[in-house]
Amino acid sequence: MEDLNAVPSGERKKLETRLFIFLIVFLFPILAVMIVGGWGFLVWMSQILLGPPGPPG
After folding, report:
1. Domain boundaries in the chain?
2. Are 47 and 53 in contact, with CB atoms under 8 Å apart?
């Protein structure tokens, strides 16, 4: 990784903009899908093992 203090101001701003676009467009949506999917899988598996929620039949 480059030392950002040694990079000229215009180039640094360009790198920061590219990083921001990467975070907003790619990383955060992927993480959100992984977290929600993981939670859904956890609930699904717990219901398979423990039964559905609610009073016993």
Report:
1. 17-43
2. yes
pLDDT in tens, 28-42: 999 999 999 999 999
For residue 28, the surrounding DSSP H or E stretch is: helix 28-50
The CA-atom distances, in angstroms, between 34 and each of 13, 20, 26, 37, 47 are 30, 20, 12, 5, 20
Contact between 42 and 50 under an 8 Å Cβ cutoff? The reply is no
Q: How many whole angstroms from its chain centre is CA 9?
A: 30
The whole-number pLDDT of residue 9 equals 85
Task: Compute CA distances 18 → 3, 13, 23, whole Å.
Answer: 16, 9, 9
**Who's near 15: CB < 8 A, 6+ residues apart?**
4, 7
